[in-house]
Amino acid sequence: MTELLKVSNASKMFYDGPIWRRQTTVAVDNISFSIADDRPSITGVVGESGSGKTTLALLLLGYAQPSKGQVVYRGQDLADMSKQERFEFRRVVQPIFQDPFAAFNPFYLVDHVLQVPIKRFNLASTEAEAEELIVEALQLVGLRPAETLGRFPHQLSGGQRQRIMVARALLCRPQLIIADEPVSMVDASLRATILASLQTLNRDLGISIVYITHDLTTAHQVCDNIIVMYGGQVVEAGAVGRVIRDPQHPYTQLLVSSIPLMDRSQRWENQETTEPTEQNGRVSVGCKFAPRCPHAEDRCWTSPPPLYQTESTRAVACVLQDNSPVLEGHDVTSVFL
Amino acid sequence: MNRLLRLFNSQRITTNLIIGLVILAIVILVSLLGPMFVDMELIEVGAVAPSKPPSAEYLLGTDSQGRDMLAVLISAIPQTLKMGLIAGIVGVSIGLLLGLLSGFFGGPLDTVIRVFADSLMTVPGIAILLVIASNIESMTVEVMGLTVAALAWMYPTRTIRSQVLSIRERPYMAVARANGESELEVLFREVMPNLVPYVAASLVASINGAILATVGLESLGLGAQNVHTLGTTIYWARRYSAVLRGQWWWWAPPIIVVSLIFIGLFLVSMGLDRFANPALTGQGSARTRRRKNKAQRNAAQLKAAANHQTGADNQSALLRVDNLQVVFETAAGSGPAVDNVSFSMQPGERMGLVGESGCGKTTMATAILSLVRPPGRIAGGSVQLGDIDLLALRDEELRKMRLKEIALVPQAAMNSLNPVMRISEQLADAIRVHETTLSQPEIETLIRDSLINVGLSPEVANRYPHQLSGGMKQRVSIAIATVLGPQLIIADEPTSALDVVVQQRVMLTLGRVQKELGAAMILIGHDMGLIAQFSDTIGVLYAGKMVERGDIDTVLNEPCHPYTRLLIDSLPKLESESEFIGIPGLPPALFNRPGGCSFHPRCPFAFERCMAETPEPQLVKGRQVACHLYPDLGQLPPIPISSVVVAGDGALPTGIVDKTTTDANTANGNTATGEAQS
Amino acid sequence: MSITYVLQRIAQLILIVFIAITINFILPRMIPGDPIESALTTKIAISGNVSVDVQKVAEAYRQKFGLDKPLWQQYLNYLNDVLHFEFGVSLVKFPETVVSQIRSALPWTITLMMVSTITAFLVGSILGALFVWPSTPRLFHVLVSPFMLLSTIPFFLLGIILLSIFATELRIFPPGGGFSPTLIRGFNMETILDILHHSILPALSIILGSMGAWALGMRAMMITVLGEDYVTFAEAKGLHPRRVFLWYGMRNAMLPQVTQLALALGGVLGGTVLVEAIFSYPGIGTLLFAAIATKDYFVIQGIVLILIFALAGALFIIDMIYPLLDPRIRYTD
Ligand SMILES: Nc1ncnc2c1ncn2[C@@H]1O[C@H](COP(=O)(O)OP(=O)(O)OP(=O)(O)O)[C@@H](O)[C@H]1O
Ligand SMILES: Nc1ncnc2c1ncn2[C@@H]1O[C@H](COP(=O)(O)OP(=O)(O)OP(=O)(O)O)[C@@H](O)[C@H]1O
Ligand code: SF4
Ligand SMILES: [Mg+2]
Ligand SMILES: [Mg+2]
């Protein structure tokens, strides 16, 4: 397998406060995985707010440098790329951001954001050709060009704006799209359309996608593989069907049980209290989830559990799985489908 | 061209701007056309008889040096304006350049520019002016202008810098980079255009300041005394004691002209505020008073009484909403955000209210509390809590009902707490105003208990909102809403900003507290799953209308309205990897609702009647449904998959535009605090 | 607010003051001609004594003030003097010291200007807030709007207008000065009333002239604040409209204004030169004005130093207390 983008043992620290009392936030903690070059995939990254998803996205996009480890694009470390290489990288790996309003420069018509990449990346030789590219991209995401072009961002709905962002990413002919919560700001009924556009890109155009979200249901729906993050670490990873339908890490279990289901027979209020027992104040140098974990044992607090490969397509970082072999190399790609 | 059009979008042109421009235009015209009508030779000393009050011959009289004041004035205006323009343009250009560099690139460059600017700001300009003035043989208008610019560039630098700092963090910067733009392109193509309003405002302010400074200095005798400007005219008037001698025609006209220029610039800059801050558009003088005349009140009571008799099964109802109508009236159009909605709720009932964004959920909640703000207006109907007609109450009576009887858990809990008040104060506020007899210790106990009750530690009381996480803030607003034990709690999307784990915990807390109080609750949301988890009954809103209302299990198991059905289907399921089901099209714009059933353009089952006739709610299979398919139809047929799987949609008509703009503005607002931080 | 933040701010303050003081050192030395000679000439012109050899006296002065030393030594001496609040003597009113001149002028300026600036701030802010408060009667808008327009007129011009109406025409108020020349000053009612009487016109011109700017700033902030969700929530809590207005509206809207107020107070000493000059008020402004007119460089330098300290001090203090007013502000850098 050749790798398009490879994260190896990447960590990102943020520092706060005075030098002598410096507080360190480990936003991303020793994560390794990769996106294949030859086989289009959708990889989900899920986790609660503050678990480091956006930071990971910024690392993947080269907008932030890892404090440890490296991010490698086709054998080339992002940290030392020439201007030309970076330019190429920028085209091939495209972002979609969470807030579809803030992603538009309010000064320009929405056309601006679609025309610039064509010019910069020399995607068309004539005006007409450029026009055609734009129309084609818009249609791919289910937008009618006549009703979207020539308008200002605030004149479009959130769902339309977000799909223009998808179309923009698409225009650049990327091989990988990093989508950071692309649907969290749109209505539940519009989510479906945007996610379907993403899935079309993947299936029909062979574009790989990293889909970052805290919504397990949609992750389940679109992804092939999934990485569950907690406190900047991978706590569980593998094929999406297995991880979500039968979660093994207590945190994933908590996440799955928090999904509001339509099924009225499984009402939260009828279940045993799911409120986790928080052990206030105690700092864990081991598993970061220990203070909230209902199964936490003494050893959880003292040393961080490695990733255990519990199945051919799953790895879990929890001592409860210690009868399984430790995942070699810590790279979760090896358990992906 | 389009950009220009947008800038001069009619909504942003205000009367202030126009009046200001007209005043300035008149002043300029007088100075330009004046020489054609007035003999400009008369500005020489001794040209006319000295110290004459205004007369037919000398319209503005003459000064004690024998000059015609009108001629003096006309020759002085362009000089003054020139000075102001030079100072303003040069000062702002320097400010723009330095502000851009400082804000965009940051680092040592930023520090150097900032420290230098701050240092220069602390040295009084007058001292520097003095030095410059004494170094220059003959002070000209141009030099004076440049001098003032040299003393004033720090102010635009500061403004521009703080703007650039905030723009720099916007996501569209990253998008531009992903589009292949280089750093310089990002700076000039993405950042610069957004500074236009600020630059314009700074320019007006600088011209203002420059004229002020020059007129001031000249009237102290420190300026260009060998040319006629308004300032020097005032200087000479003072020098020859015109004020004390009552020669008003000497000193008053230049002061009046300066004042006119200032008033003009002031109005223009007020007008420019609109460009700088589009959020101001349409807010103007925010809310108007909720006022109702007696006749209206009586009519409402009569109607309520009538309803009382008809709704026999509603005898025990806690809340009864009848034909409630809320309209928004704006320049862009008007339309009913809540359209003839009627429903009732029993005590202790949990009602889920669902619908897509913009269908009127929040408007309905605010209408029940009579908190609708202009341009919204309650246009008809009644809201009854027990025996009390809320819409007929006087302001003061209504105020006493709020929180004590009906409490709101607001949609944006993140922003619903006053950021500069401690939690305890915000709770105490609420308690004190309704329970006037409680002593301080009693209030404190109440605060403590209410915090513990929502699962927070009592010490949270001493914190400020920004020290709490989103989930904690939401708990605090639940604590406030429930502290006085209201009969009805309206929770407007209480968890939409939280992640799933926190959402579950907050909802469980809200549910528990509501049960303990025995209060009824309206839970607003667009997540069918959450509503299914928490409600006893459900109401489905579409385009301001209640399209389906009934028991939750009944409705979820067999939705009758096509819209309800689609809403339910569009929720992805965990059990299987299903197709994406979306609702084709978009909800209609507020100001352009389709006739007939407003859902017909999107409805897979629509037929002719749906376009012509508005369906009335009717009882179908134990729930109210407003759809023409019934009563003829026994069961809603399966939805044709082709029509609902990922369809394209139309553009959003302009109706929703304003709302989304303001939302986005508040979302990335906080410029004030951002500035203080930097 | 961390200790680092405070230390950083103090360092910045020192740096800024240092640069400003240095500018103040360089400035007079950039003036062409010899300040001492020109001051002496002025002085002689005033006193009419022609027999003095200007050159010789000037030489003596220069030696006395160390102006014949190399520049760096002068600079060090200057810094040393500044540290000891030693601003030299007035050249024109020799041998009066600069410090004593400033000391006698300062109280006048501080009381008059501080009081009127704060009054203008309070009145302006309240009016501005009322402007956008929904239940303000229409009549208020009609009555107050003209005052707002009046405020756009620069206040020293307003001073001239007030002077001509109330002092020249109506003769209700004295045309200038801080007290009547005939008054025997003492701590009694008569003195106080006399001083008040003299201060009303200058105070009024500052209040009327700057009120509008405060009102305008407040109005803009208040529009934003009234649109905030916490104001709606406060109303939903059933609070008295008065409480919502004051504690949820004004209090929040005023925060950004406080910085401006501090700057205005810091600038009070210098910013009102013109008003003082027009009313011949015996404060710092008039002193500076006179010093400029007679080129009394040491006095100018001394006053400028005082102004630098005042403004830098005001900026520093506001930075220190702002976090107390607005708990959201986090200082990290
Ligand atoms: N620039 C920064 N400086 C300091 N700390 C930061 C910075 N950016 C992120 N962090 C911290 O790093 C952690 C991870 O943040 P991140 O934004 O990656 O989380 P996330 O999973 O994207 O959360 P969300 O779902 O809220 O977007 C958080 O604790 C955050 O406070
Ligand atoms: N201030 C306003 N001016 C004009 N129209 C408005 C205003 N506020 C709301 N509306 C319109 O009223 C309608 C109902 O809005 P409302 O906020 O009640 O919807 P909602 O169902 O709460 O939506 P959401 O799920 O986004 O909160 C929308 O069409 C909206 O555009
Ligand atoms: S009335 Fe007609 S258009 Fe409306 S929901 Fe029913 S079938 Fe569809
Ligand atoms: Mg994020
Ligand atoms: Mg809403």
Bound ions, cofactors and other small molecules, one mention each:
adenosine-5'-triphosphate, iron/sulfur cluster, magnesium ion
Strand content of chain A: 15-25%
Percent in helix of chain C? over 70%
| H and E string of chain A | EEEHEEHEHHHHEHEHEEHHHEE
Largest sheet of chain C: none
Quantity of strands of chain A, as a count = 12
Low-confidence stretches of chain C: none
Would you list the SSEs of chain C in sequence order as H and E? Answer: HHHHHHHHHHHHH
Q: What gross morphology of chain C would you assign?
A: globular
Specify the CATH homologous superfamily of one domain in chain C: MetI-like
Quote the average pLDDT of chain C: 79
Count the beta strands of chain C: 0
Instruction: Summarize the largest interface: chains and residue counts.
Output: B-C, 88 and 84 residues
Please give the radius of gyration of chain C in angstroms: 24 Å
Structural commentary:
The complex is a heterotrimer of chains A (337), B (678) and C (333). Chain A is of the alpha/beta class. Chain A contains eleven helices and twelve strands. The longest helix of chain A is centred in the middle third of the chain and has 18 residues. The mean pLDDT of chain A is 86. Chain B is of the alpha/beta class. Helix content of chain B is 49%, strand content 11%. Chain B contains 25 helices and twelve strands. In chain B, strands 6-7-8-3-9-10-12-11 form an eight-stranded mixed β-sheet, sandwiched between helices. Chain B has a four-stranded antiparallel β-sheet with strand order 2-1-4-5, sandwiched between helices. In chain B, helix 3 packs antiparallel against helix 4 and helix 18 runs parallel beside helix 19. In chain B, 51% of the residues are buried. The C terminus of chain B is likely disordered. Chain C has a domain of 204 residues: MetI-like (MetI-like fold). In chain C, helix 5 runs parallel beside helix 13. The longest helix of chain C has 38 residues. The mean pLDDT of chain C is 79. Bound molecules: adenosine-5'-triphosphate (2 copies), iron/sulfur cluster and magnesium ion (2 copies). Iron/sulfur cluster binds next to loops of chain B.
